[in-house]
Write a structure and sequence with these properties.
The complex is a heterodimer of chains A (122) and B (586). Chain A is mostly helical. Chain A has helices at 3-61, 64-75; strands at residues 102-106, 112-116. The longest helix of chain A is centred in the first third of the chain and has 59 residues, at 3-61. Chain B has helices at 36-71, 77-83, 128-138, 144-151, 166-175, 197-200, 212-216, 218-223, 234-250, 287-290, 293-296, 305-316, 350-356, 359-369, 371-380, 408-415, 424-435, 459-475, 548-562, 571-582; strands spanning 101-102, 108-121, 157-164, 180-189, 228-229, 255-262, 268-274, 299-300, 325-326, 331-333, 336-338, 347-348, 421-422, 439-441, 453-455, 489-499, 502-516, 523-530. Classes of the chains: A mainly alpha (122), B alpha+beta (586).
Chain lengths: 122, 586
C-alpha cells in the first residue's frame, strides 16, 4: 500500500474516532442539559401555580374593607372629601418651584404633612 | 470486445484495491503500453483517491465542528432559543384552566385555585365501614353515614369529597387506604365575596358558569387563560354597596340597587343589587338575594320618566324651554283624571314641570307632541327591548305596550312614568344618552367592548336637559343630592309598587337618577330603593327625595374624588379651604 493511501487511511480512521468521541461527549452534554431543562421546566410550572395562588391571596388581603380599616388604624387616613380636592391655583405657594423650602406640619394625631413655605404668589 | 482479460492468469501479487486484479500492466502508463484495460484501472484508482479525499474532508469538517461545539462555545444558547422553531418549549402555561376576571385596575375579582377531589373505587375498598369511620375523622363536616352509604354502592366510581385542602389531601394519603384516589381539578374563588355577586355570578362544582358573567362569558373564560378585564372598579363598587346596605337598613327597605355608568362610553363602573349572596358558598340561596334587581328588575319608574318626556318634547320642536303650561287644574283624558300630588302650581315652564314633578305639566307637554313621536323616541332609547348585548344573562325585556294599546290615555300615563316597566339598566342607559350630548351607548361590562353609539337627541336638547335637571337638584326634589363642587343634575321618581297586577299604595319603589358634573357629565348614577319605609327622620315620607336622594349624595361625595372628577369650587372658597387646612401666614 502506498504511503499516501496509508496516510489517508490513518487520517480517516483518526477522524472517525474523533467524530465518534465528539458525538458521544455531545450526546452526554445534551442529556445533562435536557435533564436540567426538565427540572427547570417543572420548577417554573410549579412556581406559576404558586404565584397564581399567591395572587389570589393578595387579592383576598386587598379587600377594600380591610384596607380601609388598616388605613384608618395605622395611618389615620379616611376617604377623601370633595372639598379636599382643589385647583393648583388655589394654593398659596408655587407648587412648581422646587427651590421653595418645605415645612413640616403635624396634626393632633401625629400625622406629618409637608408644605412648601413660600406663601406669596402673584 | 472491449476487454480481453484472462482472470485465470493472475500473478502472485496481492490485491489491495477493488479492480486491481484486472490490472495488466503495473507501473507507470507509457504511451507504448497504453491499452483499454490500463485506462480502466487508472479511472478506478483516481476515483478511489477522490472518494478517500472526500471522506477525509467530510470527516475533517465534522470533526472540527464537533470539537468546536464540545470544547468551545460553539452554540449561543440565546440565538438557539430565538431560532428554535419549537419555541413552545419555552412557553409555560398556567395549570389553572379557567381565566381570571380582573376589575378595571387589574385587581383580581374572580380566580381559580388548583385543588383535588377525593373519589373511591368501591370495588377496591374492602371494609366500607372502617374506611367511612377513618374518613369521618378527617372530614368531621361530612357525616359517617354519607361516607358509608357512598362506599357501599355497587358502582366502581364515587366522589367522596370535592375540593380538598392540601392538608386534608395529606391526611387522606397518610391513611393509606387502597381504593381511595385523588383527581386534579380547580375551584373558583371570589376573594371579595358578596361584592360582585350579581356581576360575576358563580360556577357549579364542575367550574362551569351558571349565572352572571361567569355564564355569559363561559366559553371565553374556558378557552383562553388570558385574564378578562372588566369595567367595574373594586373600590367604587365597595363604597356604593356599603351605602346601599346602610340605606336599606336605615329605611327598612326590601332591597336596593345601584348602577354607576360612564356616560361617555357606556362602561358600567359599579353594579350592585342588595340583598346579595356569597358565591363562594355552595349552599342554596333564597330567591331574593339571587335576584339581580339592577338588570332584571322591571318596574314602573314613575317621575323619572319625565326626563325622557321633556327630552322628547324639546326634541320634537313642539315644546320650547320658555313655553308655559297651565297646571292649576286637573286634566281629563277620557276616564283618566290627571292631578298633581302636591297640589296645583299654576303656569309652569318645562323646567318647573321637572322641578315640581308635575304630572299635569307632563301630560300637557306630550299632548302637543303626540303618541307617534313618543313611541318612536322610547323605542330609540331601547325601552322596548331587552339589552341583549349587555354581558349578563340576567336581563329583562321591558313591558312595552303594543301600538294598538298605545292610546291617548297610555300616552299620558307614560309621560309621567306609568304604563311602561323597565329595568334600572334601561333607565340609566337612556338617561346617559339624554345628558351626554345625545348619543345612546350600549351599556357594557367589558373594557374592550366596542359597541356603536347612535344619536337620540340633539346636542342642544341635551344641553337644555342638563340645565333643567340641574334646577331639580338646586331647588326641586333632588335638593339633598346637591354635592358642593360637583354640580349634580338629576330627577327623582316614586311609583306605587305593582303586586299581582294591582298597585299597592302602601308600597313604593323610589328612584333617583343623577349625573355629574352638569357642564360635561362624566358619570351617571341610579339608585333604586325597593319599598322603603317611612320614619321619623323622613317625616313619614317614603318618596325618593327622602331616601334614594341622600343615599346618592353620600355615594357621589365618596366616589367622585376617587373617579378623578374635578370639584369646581370657586377660587376664593378653595383658598379659604387651603388657609384652614395649612394655616398659611400671609
Amino acid at each position: 500500500m502506498g504511503k499516501f493511501k496509508m496516510t489517508m487511511f490513518g487520517l480517516w480512521f483518526t477522524l472517525t474516532l474523533m467524530v465518534a468521541l465528539g458525538s458521544s461527549v455531545l450526546k452526554n452534554r445534551v442529556q445533562v442539559l435536557e435533564r436540567k431543562l426538565a427540572t427547570i421546566n417543572s420548577n417554573i410550572q410549579s412556581d406559576i401555580a404558586q404565584i397564581h395562588v399567591l395572587k389570589a391571596e393578595w387579592s383576598h388581603f386587598n379587600t377594600p374593607d380591610r384596607l380601609r380599616k388598616l388605613a384608618y388604624e395605622q395611618l389615620s387616613l379616611e376617604n377623601a372629601k370633595p372639598e379636599q380636592i382643589i385647583n393648583y391655583s388655589a394654593l398659596h405657594f408655587n407648587y412648581e418651584d422646587e427651590s421653595a423650602p418645605v415645612l413640616m406640619r403635624s396634626d393632633k394625631k401625629g400625622l406629618t404633612t409637608l408644605v412648601k413655605a413660600e406663601v406669596k404668589k402673584n | 470486445m472491449g476487454f480481453n482479460v484472462n482472470f485465470s492468469k493472475r500473478n502472485n501479487e496481492n490485491f489491495y484495491l477493488p479492480g486491481q486484479e484486472i490490472k495488466i500492466a503495473r507501473g507507470t502508463i507509457s504511451s507504448k503500453s497504453y491499452t483499454t484495460e490500463s485506462d480502466n484501472v487508472m479511472t478506478c484508482r483516481s476515483r478511489t483517491i477522490v472518494a478517500l479525499v472526500c471522506f477525509v474532508l467530510a470527516y475533517l469538517i465534522l470533526g472540527v465542528r464537533v470539537s468546536y461545539v464540545c470544547l468551545g462555545n460553539g452554540i449561543n444558547i440565546d440565538t438557539a432559543i430565538s431560532e428554535s422553531a419549537d419555541a413552545d418549549v419555552f412557553r409555560f402555561k398556567n395549570p389553572v384552566k379557567r381565566a381570571d376576571i380582573l376589575d378595571r385596575n387589574g385587581e383580581i375579582i374572580a380566580t381559580s385555585l388548583p385543588t383535588v377531589n377525593l373519589y373511591a373505587n368501591t370495588k377496591k375498598v374492602k371494609n366500607p365501614q372502617d374506611v367511612a369511620e377513618k374518613l369521618n375523622y378527617v372530614f368531621p363536616d361530612v357525616p359517617y353515614e354519607v361516607f358509608e352509604s357512598k362506599l357501599s354502592r355497587r358502582g366502581a366510581f364515587v366522589y367522596l369529597k370535592r375540593n380538598l385542602s392540601p392538608a386534608q389531601q395529606m391526611q387522606v394519603n397518610n391513611l393509606g387506604i387502597p381504593g381511595l384516589e385523588f383527581e386534579n381539578c380547580e375551584t373558583r374563588i371570589y376573594p371579595h365575596k358578596n361584592l360582585f355577586a350579581h356581576v360575576l355570578g358563580k360556577t357549579n362544582v364542575d367550574n362551569e358558569g351558571i349565572s352572571g358573567l361567569e355564564k355569559y362569558m363561559n366559553e371565553r373564560l374556558t378557552t383562553s387563560t388570558k385574564p378578562l378585564h372588566l369595567t367595574v372598579d373594586l373600590g367604587i363598587q365597595n363604597k356604593i354597596r356599603d351605602e346601599l346596605i346602610a340605606g336599606v337598613k336605615q329605611f327598612n327597605a326590601e332591597g336596593a340597587a345601584a348602577i354607576l355608568m360612564n356616560v361617555k362610553n357606556g362602561q358600567v363602573v359599579a353594579l350592585i343589587s342588595v340583598p346579595d349572596y356569597d358565591p363562594n358558598e355552595n349552599i342554596k340561596v333564597a330567591e331574593r338575594p339571587m335576584f339581580n334587581f339592577a338588570t332584571k328588575g322591571i318596574y314602573e319608574a314613575g317621575s323619572v320618566f319625565k326626563v325622557f318626556n321633556t327630552a322628547l318634547s324639546l326634541e320634537s320642536g313642539k315644546v320650547k324651554v320658555t313655553d308655559r303650561f297651565d297646571t292649576s287644574h286637573p286634566v281629563h283624558y277620557g276616564r283618566l283624571r290627571v292631578t298633581d300630588p302636591h297640589g296645583s302650581h299654576g303656569r309652569l315652564t318645562p323646567e318647573d314641570i321637572l322641578v315640581e314633578s308635575s304630572n299635569i305639566g307632563s301630560s300637557l307637554e306630550i299632548s302637543l307632541v303626540g303618541k307617534k313621536f313618543q313611541r318612536k323616541f322610547l323605542q330609540s332609547i331601547n325601552m322596548d327591548k331587552a339589552l341583549e348585548e349587555f354581558e349578563l344573562p340576567e336581563i329583562a325585556k321591558p313591558q312595552f305596550l303594543s301600538e294598538k294599546r298605545w292610546g291617548e290615555v297610555s300616552m299620558v300615563t307614560i309621560s309621567y312614568g306609568y304604563g311602561i316597566s323597565s329595568t334600572p339598566l334601561h333607565i340609566i342607559s337612556a338617561f346617559s344618552a339624554v345628558v351626554n350630548g345625545g348619543l345612546y351607548r350600549q351599556p357594557t361590562l367589558l373594557e374592550d367592548s366596542k359597541h356603536k353609539s347612535k344619536r337620540v337627541v340633539s346636542e342642544q336638547t341635551s344641553e337644555s336637559m342638563r340645565s333643567l335637571l340641574r334646577a331639580v337638584v338646586v331647588r326641586g326634589t333632588g335638593k339633598r343630592a346637591n354635592v358642593d363642587g360637583y354640580q349634580v343634575i338629576g330627577k327623582t321618581g316614586t311609583a306605587d309598587k305593582l303586586e299581582n297586577g294591582r298597585y299597592n299604595h302602601k308600597k313604593s319603589i323610589s328612584t333617583f337618577i343623577s349625573a355629574f358634573p352638569e357642564k360635561d357629565p362624566k358619570y351617571a348614577l341610579i339608585v333604586v330603593m325597593d319599598d322603603p319605609k317611612a320614619s321619623k327622620e323622613t317625616y313619614g315620607y317614603t318618596t325618593a327625595g327622602w331616601n334614594a336622594v341622600p343615599i346618592s349624595k353620600n355615594i357621589i361625595s365618596a366616589v367622585a374624588p376617587q373617579l378623578n372628577v374635578r370639584a369646581d369650587f370657586d377660587l376664593e372658597k378653595q383658598k379659604s379651604i387651603v388657609d384652614a387646612a395649612y394655616k398659611v401666614k400671609k
